[in-house]
Amino acid sequence: MVRSVVPALAGLALFVCGHALAAEKISDADAFAELKARAQRGDAISQWAVSQAYSSGQYGLKADKAEAFKWASKAADGGIADAAFNLAHAYEKGEGTTADPAQAADWLQKAANAGSAPAAVELGGLYEKGQGGLTRNAAQADALYQTAYNLGDRDVWSHLCASETAGDGVDWTRAPLHCQKAGQAGDDSAWLVLANAYASGTGLTADPAKALDAYRAAANGGSLPAMEALAAVYHDGTLAPKDENQALNWHRNAARYGSMPAVAALARAYDSGDGVEADPKEAARLYDILARSGDTDAKAWFAAHPKVRQADIQRDIVTPGKMPSGQILYAIDSDDPRFQTLDLASYYQQLVDTTYPQHALQEHKEGAATVECRFTAHGDLNNCILVEESPRSYGFGPALARIADRLSDSGNKALWADRYAGKTLRLSARWKP
Question: Which residues contact 402 (CB under 8 A, 6 or more apart)?
Answer without folding.
Answer: 355
